[in-house]
Amino acid sequence: MSEKYMEMWKNLGMDIEKHNQLLGILGQYYTAVYLSQKNRPKSMGYFDFVVSEIHGLRIKELNDQRAKGNKVVGAFCIYAPEELTYAANATMVGLCGGADFSVPDAEAILPRNLCPLIKSFYGFKLNRTCPYFQSSDLVVGETTCDGKKKVYELVNELIPTYVLEIPHKPDTQKGKEFWYKELEAFQAEIEKLTGNKITAEKLKASIELINNKRKALKRLQDLRAKNPSPISGLDALLIFQISFNDDPVRFTAKVNELCEELEERVHNGVGVTSKDAPRIMISGCPMAIPNWKLHSIAQAAGASVVVEESCVGTRYFTDVVEPKGESLHDLLWAIVEKYSQIPCACFTPNNKRLDSITTLAKQFGAQGVIYYTLQNCHDYNVEGIKVERALKVEGLPMLKIETDYTMGDSEQIKTRVEAFLEIIEGKKAH
Ligand code: BJ8
Asked: Atom 2 of ligand 1 has which residue's CA nearest to it?
């Protein structure tokens, strides 16, 4: 890929040497984690291709669009309103933030005891190795956790950054009205950026576009309720990660194609593990691409990971936007209703998330939950206490893993996950 896209990367102002190093590491990691899996669905071929071209062809597509005058908007949170972005003929993409590669660059400026996701994304902008950052005309941030909120101020020194103010009690009437006004302000911002007016008709079409993507992902997720699951946790995670970067129409079609193959597998009783493999839910902080660490450890230890209660997972696609009318006001209000259902740990109280976790565990037959916290993420870390209590009531064991993007603790995590799976096996034997 390197030679083919060299000119494009140079034009994007990327650090070519460093970027080459990154591509080398990613290629090896992907081969080791993904291509070594047995019995993968054939339709995963498309997603392997997307990964192989994630810094190449997709970036070219985005920049071809930009050459025609269309804008690219980068984001880090599922609160960034995709529907409004697409309604203004702009494309929304997830920015790099899932690798340790850029953390040392960030640590030259930021405090070390900060969430790795935040350090990673700031480092990627600083060291100019994320082509999505380099292709973005605007970054959309949000006031979710304190770390992100403050680092967006620094990101704004490097690239125009618009920060959405998120109500921290989003499902109250007051919170919803506040969020409605924020959406209107975002609409004005995105119209200014693109020079395109958002009409009810355009917004209706983009709601349908993103709803279709969310529905395809939910269709895929629902198939994982089968025992054995027809797809591995790693492959499902990869698709959820790619959902933030690929073209939504093509991506939706490819996910639906995969679902057809998985339905066939279910019909024929074909799975990726034995029926007896312990079924695990992973719940907690989002895992941005290429964060595959916990899934690969759990899978190698013999677990069947069947659901991710995560923003790179069910929190993104469980609900769709359901307008009750045709006016711009009705459509915006429907977006408010949908987004206010996202149970991010930044909110308080957040009992909705506890209900969602226990419901998902039952729905997907999870026999245990691995609670995943990134280091220094206080919101997910503290909320883990309430999650553990709620799971205990349901008789479900929980293992809490607090980690970063380095591989230094992999052996220790492996030992803990293996012991956890033994507990589950022991419970089953009883
Ligand atoms: S809606 S989960 S995507 S904010 S950056 S909170 S890991 S300390 S990402 Fe998130 Fe939106 Fe919420 Fe979802 Fe913790 Fe790190 Fe903060 Fe993080």
From this structure: 344
